[in-house]
Amino acid sequence: MASVNKVIIVGNLGKDPEMRSFPSGDQVANVTIATTDKWKDKQSGEMKEATEWHRVVFNGRLAEIVGQYLRKGSQVYVEGSLRTRKWTDQSGVEKYTTEIRADQMQMLGSRQGMGGPGAGGQDDGGGYEAPRQSAAPASRPPPPRQAPAPAAAPSRASSGFDDMDDDIPF
Fold it and tell me: How many other C-beta atoms lie within 10 A of the C-beta of residue 34?
């Protein structure tokens, strides 16, 4: 029987990304992402919520993008797989950590506070998919941009969008 190890989360960063670089020049970004479930309690009728924290690891070019554009509070869509690592703490005790190894990331929400060139503008949802290991390394073409709005829609100048949307390198 085949098996699947696939994780999809949409949440907000709990703090700024922690960046590390290796002697080879490769980068790793570690983040914690909060997802919150909300529901109405059937017995009391009051609203309840539970927040789950997820450790997420980004590698290579995806880590560079995370370090450059994401900040505490940034909302992101992440796809990846679960990985459990074994490590030894300072007192010699073996410990285990389960984290999401991201292979795709989509920035959501506004750019405000994301460290990008535009602050306060609307987000076009720039995203990036990490290259597969079997794929040839090199530049990946940017994702297709949304087609312009039909002529009946208000003009860009009157819609409140700023021109910074065109400056994002995705």
Answer: 14
